[in-house]
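input
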Amino acid sequence: MTDPKIAVVGAAETTEMGVIPNQSEFSLQADAALNAIKDAGLEPSDIDGLAVAGQPVDALAQYLGITPKWIDGTGIGGSSFLLHVRHAAAAIGVGYCKTMLIVHGESGKSGVGAAGFPKFLAGNIGGEFEVPYGATLPPTMFTIPVRRYLHEYGLSVEDLAQVAVTQRQWAALNPRATFKDPLTIENVMNSRMIADPFRLLMCCLRTDGGGALVLTSADRAKDMPQPPVYITGTGESCEGPLISQMENFTTSKAFRLAGQSAFDEAGLERSDVDHVMIYDAFSHLPLYGLEDLGFCKPGEAAGFIREGNTAPGGKLPVNTNGGGLSYMHSGMYGMYALQESVRQMRGIAPAQVPDAKVSIALGIGGMFSVAGTIILTNQQV
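output
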């Protein structure tokens, strides 16, 4: 493993999560930001770098009373915050700022002060070439690759249901999870059809909430109150916004490139990873993620999950907070994946993986269009 130069020293989610009709998106972002700053043992005046997606970065800076020297308004959907971490590592590494605050907050359920749904529907190439043919919202777009994936590898819709069932097992161990009741494949298959093959319980939640991270150099992190969680590998890539133009419907080029970049930078092998977080807006994404990150061969992830390998007690715990299917999904889920990776590396997760030393988080933006990968560790060389 390479010697990490950057560390997470503050991490927190909003005080409340779920349905929060009395808070705007700015209020949720401020709540998450102040919680993370407090977790780091700092004051807002200590922050000189700021990143946010969904709301204007300058407006949030003013709202928080921060005057940053480095700002990042990268907004590419759910993987925005993983790219923010990568960009923060670069900025801190060259001295553009010393202490970076990455903020997420969305009123995804209540819609209070929400910035609005990303413009998949008009004003871009998708609006010209796909929307007229019915590829409009995420369920209708993701159906195209997943149907090919199931056909290519001889899998069934029940294999998608198994993902939701396994992640509910993790959610049952998490007091903050939205859904904790036991789930069966029959429950999933009997839930309402949304867009074939997706049933309701194969689709992510709609909630309100947020989270924030504070990053600084590994040297400074040693003096912070929380145990440092080091960033040892990062990656990002994109394939494009047209779902119909994917290079291969059974794999994500962006996932593969972003994942390999992170492993190369970290100097780690797949066998070194103890814990995995894969953005799961729909239940097929963990299948693609496990394969494109190199943990399973093409077409073998469903069997890997079916055998219990990603469940509590399994050899490769995946989405241990319950994921976007059962824990939380306010619209851009990547921050919650990072939060759980940090908790696991700190050893404080509700469903803690014993002796976990390395975690990887994979985020997606759009429908397979953008990806970000971060490898975190509690070990420093």
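quick obs: Residues 25-39 form the longest helix (15 residues).
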